[in-house]
Structures are given as structure tokens and as C-alpha cells.
Amino acid sequence: MKPGNAMTFFSTPAAAEIHGKVYDVSGLYVSVSGFDGLLSVGDRLDLHPLAGGSIRAEVVGFCGSLAKTMVFGDTDGLGPGSKASLPLYLGQNAMLRRGGLPVSDRWLGRVVDPLGAPLDGGPRPGGSCVQPTRAAPLNAMERARLGPRLDLGVRVLNAFTTCCEGQRLGLFAGSGVGKSTLLAMLARFTSCDVAVVALVGERGREVREFLEDELGEDARQRTAVVVATSDCAPLMRREAAYTAMTIAEHFRDQGLSVLLLMDSVTRFCLALREIGLSMGEPPATRGYPPSVFAELPRLLERAGPGRRCENGKEGHITALFTVLVEGDDQNEPVADAVRGILDGHIILDRAIAEAGRYPAVDVLRSLSRTSHRCTLPAEKALVSRARALMASYAEMADMIRLGAYKAGSDPEVDEAIRVRPAVEAILRQEREERASIEDSFAALQRALA
């Protein structure tokens, strides 16, 4: 053991370092020796390729006295005999050894990778308090209840899937249906104090387009963005979700209303699948090992209302998780598991997008499980009437298109045909247009008048 130097991954210097060696490299695995009794699952250490530099790694298991690790990058340059170093920290910085992050208000307006390294050319955002990225959800009985209804700024969501502060919603869609555009609208328009965006497995080409064109400079100032592109190692893609959740929890614990947008939970699960299969877990449902469906609720349950306070000033994490459904199958394993955990689901339909209506929300298949507690009786009646008319039209749509339906045969269908153009008009919204909750219900009332 020797005194530590300034860390490559954190500005906080290690108090000391313990050195070992790489024993074996196989696929995503790197076996390390020389740390008997000093490591546990979840610890982080640095591996040093023969050509120089360092690679962050995490302990995921053991084989006798060998620690089996997975790297946050490529294994290129690593081989038997490569040096491994375990940094040791003192006091509250000891959490850095297990992937803790020094989160602070300085993270707002910044773009970082899952390990906290800046991607926007600025200095590393730091903080005086280190928080664990793998924290447990709050005790259910210690949590506050949901807050008041939240203005999302999107007309179709405000009216038909009205949500509360602290609610968790799933956005289910196939590729190319408009998820990113809708997420950017929510980040710009939602009435929240802070927004946190996690781009998990996103295309590298689209990151700057999302930040500069979709999100915009004003919204970026109150937003922390965590990026792990599709070419990143599975451990980095997994860590992006935990880092974003940790940042959101930091601001929630200050009593703020936080909007967490994660795109996408599916790619988080795919990263977990790669890690699980590499560890030798048996594939289960569609190749996903059991650990994926054990880890998923541990992440999603961390969002929601904060700890109950006697002064009533609890913070909330209102979370919207996108689910990239394979082949537009809404019942594939990840979508089915996520839908059972969250407090509502929003379905984006490819046929609606192809017809040119954005956001392409399928109102009849979308649901908010808390809308009953945050809407007025008159608003509930208005939404119920609109859904009934839209369902009547959908049931007779084929006959109407073929001209087989005769006016006067059914008064309900007649009314549905009459109001359909006005209802479709309020469901359509330009990406630069904001609509408040009051305006959304007023527009729906005019459409049904």
C-alpha cells in the first residue's frame, strides 16, 4: 500500500492505493489477483493497460481468491501482469470506492458521462457530499404522498393522462415514432424546478441534435444530462440510469420538484442482459436472465415522492421512462414488466405517426392511474365523454371509410363523426407550442360543444 495520487476519474485524491495484477482476460471479464479480503461485489478499481493509461472496472463476482471484474470501456491493452490499483478514501469520500458521485447544483446545465466526466468541454462538476449511485428505494411508509397535478405543457397528456407530482409514467413506442421530440417538449414545458435527462444507448449522432435543436439553450440551464451512447460498454449504459437517478434524488432531497426523463429503459435492460449472460446466468424470457427483472423495480421504485416532511415541503421525482417495444409488440417482456410497476402508460402508435399527427399518442390505450385524484368532476366527465366518442368512432371506422355507415343509424356514432375533426385538432401540437392544463381542458370542451 502506498499514498495515493490524484484520481483519473475523480478530482478527490485517494488517501492510499493497494496494487494487484491482472490474472486473466476473457471476453468482458477481467480477473484480478492480489486483493484477498479487500474487495467486495460493487467495488471499483483501476486497471492499467501495458501501453499506459487506466480503465475503470467494477467487481461483479469472485472465483476463489480471484476478483472477477467488468470494465467501463474496452479491454484493449490489458493482459496478464497488467497492474491493477484499488484507491482508498477516507470519511464520506469512502463511497467513491463503490461508485458514489459528488453531486451538487453545479451539475445543472452540464452534459456528463455515467462516471461524472464532462462531455461538454467544461470542468468536472463536483460537490461536497458523495451520494451512492446504487441506493435502495425509500421505505414505503416513510414516503410522502403524491403532490398536486403537474402541468406537462402537452395538450393530449394534460387532458387525457393528467398526472401528479411524483408520478411515474411509461412512454411505450417503437423506433422512429417521435419519442425524442416528445421528451424534449416535456423537458421544455413541464412546470418543474429541475430536469434530469438520461440518454441510455442513444445514437451518438442524435445527442447534439437533441440538446441543441430539441431541448434548446433555455431548458438546458435547468437540466442535467447523462449520456451513454450505443457504442459504450454495457456497464456504462447500465450506469447511466443509476447516475441520472442519483442526480434526481439529490435535488428531490432539497424539496424540489424534479422531472426525470430516461430514454430508454429497454436499452438499460439490454445492458443488464449482456452483463448477466456474461456472468453465466441462464437466459429466461426472450433471452433476459432473471436478474434483469429483479433489478428493474429497484431502479424504477427510486423515483416518486420524497421522504415525508412535517412542513409539507417534500420533494418529488416525476419520472417518464421510455420503453422501446420490439416490433411494436406492447406485450414483450420489458414492456410488460415496466407497465406493471409504473403509475400509468402512454402509447405512441406508428399508424398515427404515419398519418401525420404528432404527438402520436393513442389516447384510448393510454392511461394515468392517478388522474382521478387530480381532476375536477367536470373535467372527468369531459374526458370520459371524449373517450367514449373516440371509441365509438374507432369501432365503426372501417364502415365509415367504406361508406357503409348511414347517418342517423346511431346517434352516438353520428356525434363521434361530427366532433372528430375538432378532437383531432386538439390532439395535434407543434413542438414549439406550449399548452397549459387549463387551456387543454378548455380546448377539449370547445371541441365537444
Report the total helices: 12
Please state the average pLDDT score.
90
Shape: elongated
Q: How is the biggest beta sheet arranged?
A: 9 strands, mixed
* DSSP strand content: 15-25%
CATH class of the largest domain: Alpha Beta
Low-confidence stretches: 1-10
CATH fold type of the largest domain? Rossmann fold
Structural class: alpha/beta
Q: How many domains make up the coordinates?
A: 3
**End-to-end gap:** 78 Å
CA-based gyration radius: 24 Å
- Strand elements, count: 20
CATH architecture of the largest domain: 3-Layer(aba) Sandwich
Helix content: 25-40%
Catalytic activity: ATP + H2O + cellular proteinSide 1 = ADP + phosphate + cellular proteinSide 2
Organism: Ameyamaea chiangmaiensis
Pfam families: ATP-synt_ab, ATP-synt_ab_N, T3SS_ATPase_C
Main location: cytoplasm
Which helices and strands appear, and what pairs or packs with what?
Elements: E1 2-3, E2 16-26, E3 29-33, E4 44-48, E5 55-63, E6 66-71, E7 83-88, E8 101-102, E9 111-112, E10 130-131, E11 149-150, H1 155-160, E12 163-164, E13 168-173, H2 179-189, E14 194-202, H3 204-215, H4 217-220, E15 223-229, H5 234-252, E16 257-263, H6 265-278, H7 290-300, E17 304-305, E18 316-324, H8 333-341, E19 344-347, H9 350-354, E20 367-368, H10 377-402, H11 411-427, H12 437-448
Parallel strand pairs: 9-15, 13-18, 13-19, 14-15, 14-16, 16-18
Antiparallel strand pairs: 1-2, 2-3, 2-7, 3-6, 4-5, 4-7, 5-6, 8-10, 11-12, 17-18, 19-20
Helix pairs in contact: 5-6, 6-7, 7-8, 10-11, 10-12, 11-12
